[in-house]
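Lecture 7 notes: from sequence to structure.

We start with a single chain of 66 residues. Read the sequence below before looking at the structure.
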Amino acid sequence: MKASMYMEFQGKQLDEKEIIAKAKHIWVENGNKATELKSLKLYIKPEENMAYYVFNDEVTGGFPLD
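Now the structure, written as C-alpha coordinates:
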Protein backbone atom coordinates (compact mmCIF):
# COMPACT_ATOMS: atom_id res chain seq x y z
CA MET A 1 0.00 0.00 0.00
CA LYS A 2 1.23 3.46 -0.84
CA ALA A 3 -0.04 6.24 1.39
CA SER A 4 0.32 10.01 1.23
CA MET A 5 -0.78 12.68 3.65
CA TYR A 6 -1.51 16.29 2.79
CA MET A 7 -2.65 19.05 5.09
CA GLU A 8 -4.73 21.83 3.63
CA PHE A 9 -5.46 25.13 5.36
CA GLN A 10 -5.73 28.79 4.46
CA GLY A 11 -5.43 28.00 0.78
CA LYS A 12 -2.16 26.07 1.23
CA GLN A 13 -1.42 22.40 0.74
CA LEU A 14 1.43 20.85 2.71
CA ASP A 15 3.01 17.52 1.84
CA GLU A 16 4.07 15.28 4.72
CA LYS A 17 7.30 14.31 2.93
CA GLU A 18 8.30 17.95 2.40
CA ILE A 19 7.80 18.78 6.08
CA ILE A 20 9.86 15.77 7.17
CA ALA A 21 12.61 16.65 4.67
CA LYS A 22 12.74 20.23 5.97
CA ALA A 23 13.10 19.00 9.55
CA LYS A 24 15.90 16.60 8.57
CA HIS A 25 17.63 19.43 6.71
CA ILE A 26 17.55 21.53 9.90
CA TRP A 27 19.16 18.64 11.80
CA VAL A 28 22.07 18.42 9.34
CA GLU A 29 22.30 22.21 8.94
CA ASN A 30 22.97 22.44 12.69
CA GLY A 31 26.15 20.36 12.35
CA ASN A 32 24.74 16.90 13.00
CA LYS A 33 25.19 13.81 10.85
CA ALA A 34 22.08 12.40 9.19
CA THR A 35 22.94 8.98 10.65
CA GLU A 36 22.78 10.41 14.18
CA LEU A 37 19.08 11.20 13.81
CA LYS A 38 17.33 8.24 15.44
CA SER A 39 13.85 9.68 15.97
CA LEU A 40 11.82 12.62 14.76
CA LYS A 41 8.51 13.78 16.18
CA LEU A 42 6.63 16.51 14.34
CA TYR A 43 3.76 18.59 15.66
CA ILE A 44 1.92 20.65 13.07
CA LYS A 45 0.07 23.76 14.27
CA PRO A 46 -1.70 25.28 11.28
CA GLU A 47 -3.21 28.07 13.37
CA GLU A 48 0.35 29.25 14.10
CA ASN A 49 1.66 28.35 10.60
CA MET A 50 4.39 26.35 12.37
CA ALA A 51 5.84 22.86 12.57
CA TYR A 52 7.53 21.92 15.83
CA TYR A 53 10.05 19.08 16.06
CA VAL A 54 11.73 16.89 18.65
CA PHE A 55 14.93 15.21 17.48
CA ASN A 56 16.07 12.09 19.35
CA ASP A 57 13.67 12.90 22.22
CA GLU A 58 15.98 15.77 23.24
CA VAL A 59 16.43 18.62 20.76
CA THR A 60 13.40 20.83 20.14
CA GLY A 61 12.58 23.70 17.84
CA GLY A 62 10.26 24.81 15.09
CA PHE A 63 10.00 26.28 11.63
CA PRO A 64 7.32 28.11 9.63
CA LEU A 65 5.20 26.11 7.20
CA ASP A 66 5.83 28.54 4.30
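Residues 37-66 form one domain. Keep this in mind for problem set 3.
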